[in-house]
């Protein structure tokens, strides 16, 4: 569920939606989502002063509350 959410949000923000890639790393108590976008689009996903990244993380944590797991978003460049 969270993977699809991040993928949808990232593809909506970037100029090159084909360059969006989300990897999921499952742990016992937490899940790590690695978001990789094209080099030119990293700034669009992070936003000024990290505002967009913070908003995406807020939506992600709200979505993950149902499962009871902690979800972490890492934006790779």
From TrEMBL:
The gene is khpA. InterPro entries: KH_dom-like_a/b, KH_sf_prok-type, KhpA. GO terms for molecular function: RNA binding. CDD domains: KH-II_YlqC-like. Forms a complex with KhpB. GO terms for biological process: cell wall organization; peptidoglycan biosynthetic process; regulation of cell shape. It comes from the Bacteria. Pfam families: KH_KhpA-B (PF13083). Its main location: cytoplasm. GO terms for cellular component: cytoplasm. This is RNA-binding protein KhpA. Belongs to the KhpA RNA-binding protein family. Keywords: Cell shape, Cell wall biogenesis/degradation, Chaperone, Cytoplasm, RNA-binding. It is found in: Cytoplasm. A probable RNA chaperone. Forms a complex with KhpB which binds to cellular RNA and controls its expression. Plays a role in peptidoglycan (PG) homeostasis and cell length regulation.
